[in-house]
């Protein structure tokens, strides 16, 4: 399915991007660590070689007793304090081997390859499977070479590399698992919003189907009865007009709802509760007269000043009053009560209309939900009013309570904070 594809792809992309970032960071970290570690390790070795070179350059070649194989100390090289045990010194006199300090790697029959050792520079050579860093230099007729075996340093470098590779693999696996988990968490609300949107469009078009079908049927009927005068078909025309009106209402409700969903910004102004009450009651008193219903308003104290989003709270209250009118038969009573309780104003909208069945009470705030008897009785509506109310109340942190007895009446109570943040 296409919808699944989008989420699958997004999730895959999130995982790939985050793992690549983690990998790059770790890779850079590895390169820096290895470079620093190896340069520190070999700098030490090179420093020792160069120190030894310095010292040997300062020795007068006259002090070299080639017969005894001793250039460094009259007491013999093995006892010489000047050659540390890890350093090997080899001396040639005019191309002939003159001296080899005691060591486990070179002897007269197994000498390092001279060609590979650069003069006055640090070189790296291999000999019988061992690796050495070394240098070569001349002192009068002598050519001297200084070697240090670096196998242990290479071994520790290798161990470090292995440790880094293993931790890299473990970290990458952890990164994959974590990013997969995070990607699912990130996508969840997006998927929910997307599904909600899809269902919303489906429901909306479903709601439009009935009035459209009615209008189409009536129009076909009119089209087939040409020659008739309009008044013979007045009933059909008025039915069509009523369906068009409900489509109009549905359209404006949908617009309001999607606006509330997208832009839930709050516009707070100072509101005088009396003005608010008057604004509402004037219109509905007239409507009650027209519909032969009673509309009562119970005010509270005068001059209560509120910090309210006037339009939103007005819209919320109107949704409730209109429902109360709609779901109350003629001679019914609708009461709008305002109560001042500490930090809030309670707005109660009470009617003695058809009431709500217990099993419907949890569903009346769902989009497009209308109870079966309301649908059956052909009372106009879109089922959006209360879900819009719920959205508004969520934005403004207004509490909603419903009390209803089926067949007897309903009361909605809004708990509106006096000061909105
Ligand atoms: N005052 C009321 N009395 C009885 N039923 C109500 C009342 N208010 C709401 N309802 C029930 O809740 C449903 C949803 O209300 P609403 O979202 O305003 O949609 P609509 O009024 O367009 O049907 C109504 O269809 C009705 O079944
Ligand atoms: Mg309604």
UniProtKB/TrEMBL annotation:
Transmembrane annotation, as ranges: 12-32, 163-183
Subcellular location: Membrane
Chain ranges of the Histidine kinase domain: 203-420
InterPro entries named in the record: BphY/WalK/GraS-like, HATPase_C_sf, HATPase_dom, His_kinase_dom, HisK_dim/P_dom, HisK_dim/P_sf, Sig_transdc_His_kin-like_C
EC number from the UniProt entry: 2.7.13.3
Signal peptide from the UniProt entry: none
Gene Ontology BP term (one): cellular response to phosphate starvation
Keyword Transmembrane tagged: yes
Keyword field: Kinase, Membrane, Phosphoprotein, Transferase, Transmembrane, Transmembrane helix, Two-component regulatory system
Cellular component per GO, a single term: plasma membrane
One Pfam family named in its UniProt record: HisKA
Catalytic reaction equation(s): ATP + protein L-histidine = ADP + protein N-phospho-L-histidine
GO molecular function, one term: phosphorelay sensor kinase activity
Full protein name: histidine kinase
Source taxonomy: Bacteria, Bacillati, Bacillota, Clostridia, Eubacteriales
């Amino acid at each position: 399915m296409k919808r699944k594809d989008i989420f699958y792809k997004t999730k895959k992309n999130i995982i790939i991007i985050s793992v690549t970032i983690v990998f790059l960071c770790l890779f850079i970290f590895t390169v820096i660590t290895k470079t620093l570690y190896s340069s520190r390790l070999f700098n030490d070795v090179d420093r020792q070689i160069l120190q030894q070179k310095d010292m040997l350059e300062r020795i007068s070649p006259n002090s070299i007793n080639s017969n005894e194989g001793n250039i460094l100390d009259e007491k013999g090289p093995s006892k010489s304090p000047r050659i540390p045990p890890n350093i090997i010194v080899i001396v040639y006199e005019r191309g002939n081997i003159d001296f080899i300090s005691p060591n486990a790697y070179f002897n007269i029959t197994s000498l390092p390859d001279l060609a590979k050792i650069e003069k006055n520079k640090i070189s790296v050579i291999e000999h019988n499977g061992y690796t050495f860093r070394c240098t070569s230099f001349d002192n009068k007729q002598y050519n001297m070479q200084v070697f240090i075996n670096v196998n242990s340093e290479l071994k520790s470098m290798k161990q470090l590399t292995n440790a880094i590779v293993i931790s890299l693999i473990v970290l990458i696996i952890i990164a994959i698992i974590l990013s997969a988990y995070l990607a699912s968490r990130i996508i969840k609300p997006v998927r929910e919003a997307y599904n909600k949107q899809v269902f919303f469009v489906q429901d909306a078009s479903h709601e439009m189907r009935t009035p459209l079908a009615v209008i189409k049927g009536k129009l076909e009927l009119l089209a087939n009865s040409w020659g008739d005068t309009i008044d013979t078909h007045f009933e059909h025309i008025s039915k069509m007009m009523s369906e068009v009106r409900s489509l109009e209402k549905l359209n404006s409700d949908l617009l309001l709802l999607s606006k509330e969903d997208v832009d839930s910004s709050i516009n707070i102004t100072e509101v005088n509760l009396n003005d608010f009450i008057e604004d509402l009651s004037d219109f509905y008193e007239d409507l009650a007269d027209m519909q032969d219903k009673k509309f009562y308003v119970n005010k509270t104290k005068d001059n209560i000043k509120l910090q309210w989003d006037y339009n939103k709270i007005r819209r919320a209250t109107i949704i409730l009053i209109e429902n109360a009118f709609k779901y109350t038969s003629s001679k019914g009573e609708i009461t709008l009560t305002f109560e001042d309780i500490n930090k809030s104003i309670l707005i109660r909208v009470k009617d003695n209309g058809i009431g709500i069945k217990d099993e419907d009470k949890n569903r009346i705030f769902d989009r497009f939900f209308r109870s079966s008897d309301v649908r059956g009785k052909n009372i106009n509506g879109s089922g959006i009013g209360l879900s819009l109310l719920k959205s508004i109340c969520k934005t403004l942190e207004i509490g909603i309570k419903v009390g209803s007895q089926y067949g007897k009446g309903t009361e909605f109570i809004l708990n509106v904070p006096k000061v909105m943040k």
